[in-house]
Structures are given as structure tokens and as C-alpha cells.
Recover the amino acids of this structure.
């Protein structure tokens, strides 16, 4: 995980819903993974990091997760909003933002990042295969989009694989 950071990553804590993904992320270098369906992840993370986190990347787009991210941030911390919220407007606890002097950064996904991401994969600095949960033949593109849009069957990332023929396959 620290291979793409600008400096060393002292602690990489990830909140995930899929048990399989959590195990893979730990193998890939995460220091901790937690599931918000089975534990209070804010409480657990703050027990590990009592002063809070300097940076939180919120990748789900869920407004409740954005609120949790503010709870996790140390004073002067930065919330990077990567996830796309379900609505155009999202409310924040402005009192907490002000008192903790938080910085919010929005991340427009994809713009200008595909080339560098491919380069990191080519160099062997990152391995995206743990995120690839489903493969589809090109003739099943509609099914792939429906699966991803509905967040069904534990999908993290689905890919169109031109070498796959016939029914969709699960797994990276």
C-alpha cells in the first residue's frame, strides 16, 4: 500500500464488507481490516489510533461513511472523497469540520489516472487482481453492468474479458 504514497504509510486500515476481500487485503499489506456490519469500526480504529488518522479516503460514497470519516480524522486531518454519493448534495457536520480544522478534497475518478495506474501495474508495483471479482464475456456486457450497478454477488470490480466465452465467471 505504501508503494503509491508520497511517503511511508505508517498504518493502512481498511473498512470492507466482503470477508474474502478483507483476507486478501491483509495479505497484500493492509495493517487491519474491519467490517461495519459486525463491529463499530470507528471505535475499533480509534482504539488502535487514539489520536485519529491524518488522512481518510472515503471510497463508498455513502454519506454515513463520510460522517464516520470525520470522526476518525485527527485535528487538521484530510478527508479525500473518492466515492460517488447517491445524491448531488451531501450534508456535513460543519461544526466538526470547523472545530477540527478539517480539509476536504474531492477526487474526480479516472481523469488522468488511467495511464499512471497502468504504468504501476506494468512495473509490478501494484497488483489489481485481488479486486477483480467477476469476469464477463463481451456478449454479456449488459449482465456485467447490471451486476455492478446493483452491487450484487459481492462484486468489487467486474471486467470484460475478451478471452472468456460463454457464461460469466466469478473470480480474478
Amino acid at each position: 500500500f505504501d508503494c503509491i504514497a508520497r511517503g511511508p504509510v505508517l498504518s493502512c486500515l481498511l473498512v470492507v464488507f466482503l470477508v474474502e476481500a478483507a483476507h486478501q487485503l491483509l495479505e497484500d499489506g493492509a495493517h487491519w481490516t474491519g467490517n461495519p456490519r459486525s463491529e463499530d469500526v470507528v471505535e475499533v480504529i480509534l482504539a488502535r489510533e487514539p489520536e485519529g488518522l491524518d488522512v481518510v479516503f472515503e471510497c463508498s460514497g455513502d454519506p454515513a461513511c463520510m460522517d464516520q470519516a470525520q470522526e476518525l480524522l485527527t485535528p487538521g486531518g484530510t478527508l479525500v472523497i473518492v466515492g460517488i454519493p447517491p445524491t448531488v448534495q451531501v450534508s456535513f457536520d460543519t461544526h466538526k469540520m470547523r472545530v477540527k480544522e478539517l480539509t476536504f478534497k474531492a477526487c474526480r475518478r479516472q481523469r488522468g489516472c488511467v495511464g499512471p495506474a497502468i504504468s504501476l501495474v506494468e512495473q509490478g508495483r501494484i497488483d489489481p487482481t485481488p479486486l477483480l471479482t467477476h469476469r464477463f464475456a463481451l456478449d454479456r456486457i449488459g449482465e456485467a453492468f447490471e451486476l455492478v450497478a446493483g452491487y450484487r454477488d459481492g462484486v468489487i470490480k467486474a471486467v470484460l474479458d475478451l478471452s472468456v466465452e460463454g457464461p460469466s465467471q466469478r473470480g480474478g
About this structure: Residues 1-5 have pLDDT under 50 and may be disordered. DSSP finds six helices and eight strands in the chain.
